[in-house]
Specification:
Length: 210
Amino acid sequence: MIFSLNEITDVLKKAAVGRGLPFGLAEDTAQAGAWLIGQGHDGVSAVLMAIEDGFYGPATKIEAHHTQYLLEGRVAVCGPSCVELLAGVALVKEVRLFNLDSPFLLIGQAGIGYQNFDIELTLRFSDGAMASISERGLTLCGSFPQRGTDVLVTCDHSNPTTDIANTRTNGIEIEPETWRAITALAAKTHVPSSEISRTKGAGAGQIDNN
C-alpha cells in the first residue's frame, strides 16, 4: 500500500487521538513517526507500539542531582517531556526512562527535538543499541532497540546549522497489516452517521443540494 508522508501523518495523529492521547501528545507522536519514515524507518509500527495500550495519565518523574528519571516508559507520553527537559532546563543533564514501550519512537522524538530546539541528542539503550541525532543525520549503532529496554538520553547544545531533511515524502509503502491496524484506531475518531450529525454539518447533508 502506497501513501504520501502527509497522508500517513494525518492517520497517525487520528490513531493516537482515537486511542485516548490528548491532541497535543497525539500530534507530537505523529510528527515523530513521520520523522522516522522520512529517514527510511518504520514509523507507523513505532507509533502503533506506543499507543496500543492507551493513555492512563501522566508519568511519574523523580529528579536526583542532574538526572531526571521517568519511571514508566510510555514513549507517547514521556518522550516529548524528555526532550523538552534536556532542551530547556539547565540543571537537567540527562534523562533516564525505564521499560520503554516503543524505543524507536523515542528516536523519532529526538529527531523532532533536534529540529525544534537546536540540540543534538544521544540515546544509549540498556540492550546495547545506541542512536544519535546531529547535523550528520541519524546514526544507529548495534541492533535496533527492543521493547522493554531502558535508555539514557543526553544532549549537546551545539547550535546545529542545518535541518535533517526527510528523504522520503511520497511513494511510501506500508505493510497492509500494519496499515489496517493503525487505520482501525484512527476510525475511533469518526462520528457515527445519524440524522442529528448530518443536521449539525457532518457528511454531505440530507438533500443533494446541501
